[in-house]
Amino acid sequence: FPPEIQLEGGRTYKTDSWMNTPASILSAIPRHLHLQPDHPLSITRQLIESRFPGYAYHNEYFPVVSVYQNFDSLGFPPDHVGRNRTDTYYLNKETVLRTHTSAHQADTFKKNETEGWLISADVYRRDAVDRSHYPVFHQMEGARTWDRKSVEGGGMTLAEKIWADVEKIPKHGIKVEDPNPTIHPERNPLQETHSADEIEAVAAHLKRSLEDVVVAIFSAARLAAANAAKQAGLPSPTTEEEPLKVRWVEAYFPFTSPSWELEVEWQGDWLEVLGSGIVKQDLLNNSGVPDRVGWAFGLGLERIAMLLYSIPDIRLFWSTDPRFLTQFSSTRPIQRFVPFSKYPACVKDVSFWLPTSSSAAGGNTPAGPNQGFHENDIMELAREVCGDVVEDVRLVDEFVHSKTGRKSMCYRTNYRALDRTLTNKEMNEMHAVFCKQLVQKLGVELR
Ligand code: PHE
Questions:
Q1: Weakest-pLDDT range from 39-48, 230-239, 295-304
Q2: How large is the ipTM?
């Protein structure tokens, strides 16, 4: 890695032994997909923003943040796995590519400009390779707080004021499963400085606001499905379809309590669409707004856009192919994505012995520059060598040799370009380079 890197806007950063961010990841920074007119992520962002009138929208926070912003300001413990170099892209010991938009919570609360705000931005995580995971994706963060002092002398309690605001959120007719109490003393505790009746009101405001978003997205998706059916000359699937199923489940985040996730039923499975909760009072106190109390959420824009448009592969968002881009418009009603023909996949296996000195794959290695082998290293190498041609990488077999104690692993890589058929020759060559780099960079021994 070069000793110094230059990014957009003349920003320069010194690297050190913590640097683990490949150039291919840095090259995503200037793309700003969530701001490209007519890009599906941008349309999805605007659709959600329209459900939060009067909120401030922050869409241009730069992705390079301090370890403090990304983790410490949010109360992540010093040994949290998220801090590992196996999971997070570092430029140097103190500087990372944000792993979530929550990295900007404290700074945005500090501005104390509006009661509600939304942040949309690109986020970066070392992770699996498959059709729903990409090392760069987009999140929207949102928060709404109330100032205790603003109700003083107004003849209304804070809880009453918040309930009045709950009434302003559009009502929906869907059934929401929410079996747990708002507050649970062990699993989902009330914060010391909060009163239960205030938090019941804040939680109601949070849940109603986010249910409204999900209902808006799914009615748009339904409409898109109906339009698609009509165009294909088929009867509309929407009228008698089963109702939308949504449920709240308890969750844990270091920076909210109590916390919840919202799940939506999609193609027979529960799909997690967002995390949320009551903002930790410490965070607000440290941001200079100790009189405020409120909620925050974070959702994945790709996930929502994939549901909205029936986009089958997360790599497509990065496509510059007009066959992809021309299918989306902010002025036309939402239409389902029509995949261009699905090109054949090419599947290859690679088996190897792990280096004897390294710790077991998938184990939690301590944060620090000299970590052992981690599965995410394989994932990243596959992306580095193959770019967006690699669709999926998964462990299909592993065993420990009974005599030598060495560990063997077999990974299956699925190659498929989104826009053309790959030739056997180019795939064999690419796979050979991948195998060679596994040896050179990770020190494995091919079997
Ligand atoms: N930042 C969390 C994540 O990426 C989501 C979240 C945001 C949860 C805000 C609670 C409040 O998973």
A1: 230-239
A2: 0.99
